[in-house]
Specification:
Largest sheet: 5 strands, mixed
Number of helices: 4
Structural class: alpha/beta
Oligomer: single chain
Strand order of the largest sheet: 1-5-4-3-2
Number of strands: 5
Shape: globular
Helix content: 25-40%
Order of helices and strands: EHEHEEHEH
Radius of gyration: 15 Å
Distance between the termini: 30 Å
Length: about 130
């Protein structure tokens, strides 16, 4: 049985910058390129105090959940952004595989192009022509 059921963009395709910077650039561009795709960020990362960790846990935050949920009529996809040299940790791999095994489109990407290519392959609607 494979240890990975989700798509992973090769590290050689990574953009420069932090995971947050890559994700922020992509979200900015996605508003224009695929305006009919509803995008929601999941704020799992970051340093929190003990109180703040307990609060977000009570609110339902799930350790390892992907960074982005993308939905459109008839489709849903989950995207995890990683910078050059980083890979999903054990909690992330567990969630990514679980989502993939449930039949969802799931990817780990390292660039804006990788995220757009992945959504296009899943059938997400784009405003204009997007060339793979």
């Amino acid at each position: 049985m494979p240890d990975r059921f989700y798509h992973q963009e090769p590290p050689s395709q990574a953009e420069q910058g932090s995971e947050e910077a890559i994700q922020a650039r992509w979200l900015r561009d996605a508003a224009t390129m695929c305006p009919d795709v509803l995008l929601a960020a999941v704020p799992n990362g970051g340093k929190r105090t003990g109180y703040a960790r307990a609060k977000v846990k009570r609110e339902g935050i799930k350790k390892g959940f992907p960074d982005i949920i993308a939905t459109w009529p008839g489709g849903v996809a989950f995207i995890e952004f990683k910078k050059r040299g980083e890979y999903p940790d054990a909690d992330q791999r567990k969630i990514l595989n679980r989502l993939a095994l449930q039949g969802h489109a799931v990817a780990v990407v390292r660039s804006s192009k990788g995220a757009f290519d992945f959504l296009k392959l899943q059938g997400a609607p784009f405003a204009g022509e997007w060339h793979l």
